[in-house]
């Protein structure tokens, strides 16, 4: 929703070149709100307004624009201004943004960025997407272990300008190996003793992430240890950067969305739904739909092989959709519950026997209940009460099959090193269609012959 | 997985009463790891080890035990020790924990807790679950606006002991109204000018949460503004507490799990899967399965009304499962994509026309593709090539119905103020079963008669 509250005033200020007022507009509010109020402006107006903030604030406001907006603003401005912006963005965000710019232009822009920032950006660009390296930023508060608290505060106050935020103070030795961490709480409580050495304030049992770690793993670590930020190190324990809590929330969100999409048999979208081209969407949905379609086709040939039976007891046909969806629905409930339990570390592979026992009981309970309802309806459609018994018996077995299979497949796929969320539901859906028909016809033959 | 690495040593230390070593064990590691190494101990051993840490650290380690463990430890210890623990836990965690204890015992325990902490706990207990009030903790760094930086640091260093962490320094007036916030970065960069007033360092455009706000709303705010913590205020803007980023990650996680479960037609579980009693599980799954079962039952009566047609063209029966699952699968893909897009604010209700257009195109593309595969298989099972045409035409229409219905239902439910995740998939599944049969038989009658 575009906030148009200030648009007329902003445009008037631009027209009348009221620099004082525009500056005031930029600094008075939280950068997120400033960005919100600017949403209705076009690119060139936006840049004109941003000129009235100093580069640090400019970058902060810029970060709160919608992604599409950011890309558009980059595309419409000259390299020099973009370079100033890139210099003041957190390095990880700058890298993400430069991904959207043509390679030649990236080189031209980076040529205008100060050497140290350029080096940071170049280095971050080398890390593979989805790793800790690609997620981290280089703006961390790092101090040498030999400093006293007084010296540390002095250095920090000079560093503070270029830092996004001070989460923890990381302590390194002369060769940039990470040695320990001082929390702002520890810092503040020692403030009365300025000659304390950092080495005496720091904690050395540090939780770190390796630069090659998977982002999901890192997010879980940060969440588990309740950290504000986690330092990223290489195999030699050199301090490389930090990953902050806000990036972790984004990862948790993105991974949750991916899981939901996988459970619904959609290959996870890299981009948002609205921005994903229809060709990509067709592909990501089509592959799974085709697999499911072939599974369902099997049922056609299966039914063909039972055609004689079906002709003799025509009323059986009426319940085919019911039988199939009973198995599919109860199975997808079970697999989803187990998948979410695996994600939240509530269930591990070794718990399979407990899970199976629970799901078998669930199958009996739910299957009996639905079977009873099914029986009473079957009385209207089946020729005799005895024949109607086919329905509850089939529903019971199909639901038990559904819950047991639905709960075990995710564990099997995890064991095989495959993503349980991706594989389970399509398999459960396909298998329960086929098993449903098999059980149905065999129960019918047994009872009715 | 229980970490047994230190268990023998720990037990030996306890046996030999090696207080020095036990104390060292408690303080040397990150509290999360200390807790991990203690997992194999029984309750009374755990308490004995914890005695060697001072109460603050005790509470910190305690928080990293599994929830069941925490509850068990509380149950097996005397009120006095529990009271010490409760005093040192963050007030919001203490409240959650006391929920698990019988009401009379809570009173006995709280009687042993210092008055200020008791008051905090009692106050937090009054907030409804799922609101900002129930999520917040009272341990925030609060200072008066009239202080200078020097005085502020002095007060802070005294407060630091009882604070979990210093995220931001909140500035209040004499009557505890929230006036502004000072970041640790701003604090550190001003450290060379100790006579600066807090009022000159603070930002006044504050993002706050109201104590009555829904926790999901609060989580979204914190994530959007990239905050470490958000202050919680009442309608008169009195400062009541803060909600920290780690609680937000938990909420994001929990909400994601709930959404996944709802999409799979399970009423969200309050507890973890393994700890939810089977009776609760039967209920939470049974209600939706029953609704779905009744929808599927409709298909039986529907098929009954078309029985004459089906008897004349017996081969049509073979494709019933295929037709039904094509609609169901493509529909659940669409509804899941739209539900996740709604959650991530990628799609709003006003975008319905764009969404419908995209999904209609998707339906045509996917439906045509699957229809072609279906046609070639139908050639084997249908009596003539002309008759086989029934299958691709039906699949095409059913898939278009599925994608359009699947994408529109979540928007409709949201418009009606219902949870789109909860309502959509069961409805899509039920409706696509029924529509599938309707389309199928009508296409067949039109072509074959």
Description:
Chain A is mainly alpha-helical and 449 residues long. The first copy, chain A, folds into three domains: 124 residues, Alpha Horseshoe (MgtE N-terminal fold), CATH 1.25.60.10; 114 residues, CBS-domain (Roll), CATH 3.10.580; 171 residues, Tetracycline Repressor, domain 2. Helices cover 65% and strands 6% of the residues of chain A. Chain A contains 23 helices and six strands. In chain A, α15 links the parallel β4 and β5. The longest helix of chain A has 30 residues. Chain A starts with 6 loop residues before the first helix and ends with a helix. The mean pLDDT of chain A is 87.
TL;DR of this structure?
The structure is a homodimer of 449-residue chains. With 449 residues, chain A is mostly helical.
Descriptors for this entry?
449 residues; mainly alpha; MgtE N-terminal fold; CBS-domain; Tetracycline Repressor, domain 2; 3 domains; three-stranded mixed sheet; 65% helix; elongated
Helix content of chain A: 55-70%
Oligomer: homodimer
CATH class of the largest domain in chain A: Mainly Alpha
Largest interface: A-B, 121 and 122 residues
Query: Care to count the β-strands of chain A?
Result: 6
The radius of gyration of chain A is 31 Å
User: The biggest beta sheet of chain A, please?
Assistant: 3 strands, mixed
CATH overall fold name of the largest domain in chain A: Tetracycline Repressor, domain 2
- The CATH architecture assignment of the largest domain in chain A turns out to be Orthogonal Bundle
Q: Strand fraction band of chain A?
A: 5-15%
Low-confidence segments of chain A, ≥5 residues, pLDDT <50?
A: none
Task: Assign the structural class of chain A, choosing from mainly alpha, mainly beta, alpha/beta, alpha+beta, or little secondary structure.
Answer: mainly alpha
Give the N-to-C terminal Cα separation of chain A.
66 Å
Number of helices of chain A: 23
């Amino acid at each position: 929703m575009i906030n148009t509250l200030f648009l007329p005033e902003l445009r008037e200020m631009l027209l009348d070149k009221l620099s004082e007022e525009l500056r005031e507009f930029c600094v008075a509010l939280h950068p997120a709100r400033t960005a919100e109020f600017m949403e209705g402006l076009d690119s060139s107006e936006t840049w004109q307004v941003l000129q009235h903030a100093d580069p640090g604030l400019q970058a902060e406001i810029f970060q709160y624009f919608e992604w599409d907006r950011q890309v558009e603003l980059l595309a419409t401005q000259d390299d020099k201004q973009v370079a100033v912006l890139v210099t003041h963005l957190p390095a990880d965000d700058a890298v993400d943004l430069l991904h959207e710019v043509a390679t030649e232009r990236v080189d031209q822009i980076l040529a205008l960025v100060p050497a140290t920032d350029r080096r940071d950006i170049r280095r971050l660009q080398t890390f593979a997407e989805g790793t800790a390296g690609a997620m981290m930023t280089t703006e961390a508060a790092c101090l040498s272990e030999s400093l006293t608290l007084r010296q540390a505060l002095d250095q920090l106050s000079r560093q503070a300008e270029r830092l996004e935020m001070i989460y923890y103070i990381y302590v390194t030795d002369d060769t940039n190996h990470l040695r320990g961490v001082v929390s702002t709480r520890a810092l503040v409580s020692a403030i009365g003793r300025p000659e304390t050495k950092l080495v005496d304030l720091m904690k050395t049992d540090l939780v770190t992430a390796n630069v090659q770690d998977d982002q999901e793993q890192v997010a879980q670590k940060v969440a588990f240890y309740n950290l504000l930020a986690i330092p990223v190190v290489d195999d030699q324990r050199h301090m490389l950067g930090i990953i902050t809590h806000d990036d972790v929330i984004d990862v948790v969100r993105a991974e949750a969305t991916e899981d939901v999409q996988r459970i619904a048999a959609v290959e996870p979208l890299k981009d948002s739904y609205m921005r994903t081209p229809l060709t990509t969407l067709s592909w990501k949905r089509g592959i799974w739909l085709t697999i499911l379609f072939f599974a369902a086709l099997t049922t056609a040939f299966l039914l063909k092989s039972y055609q004689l039976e079906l002709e003799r007891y025509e009323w059986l046909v009426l319940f085919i959709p019911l039988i199939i969806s009973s198995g599919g629905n109860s199975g997808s409930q079970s697999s989803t519950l187990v998948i979410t339990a695996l994600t939240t570390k509530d269930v591990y592979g070794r718990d399979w026997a407990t899970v199976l026992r629970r799901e078998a009981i669930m199958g009996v309970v739910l299957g009996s209940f639905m079977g009873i309802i099914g029986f009473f309806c079957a009385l209207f459609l089946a020729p005799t009460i005895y024949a109607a018994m086919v329905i509850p018996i089939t529903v019971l077995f199909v639901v038990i099959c559904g819950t047991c299979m639905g709960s075990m497949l995710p564990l099997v796929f995890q064991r095989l090193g495959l993503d349980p969320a991706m594989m389970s539901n399509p398999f459960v859906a396909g298998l329960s269609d086929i098993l449903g028909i098999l059980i149905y016809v065999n129960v019918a033959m047994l009872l009715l012959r």
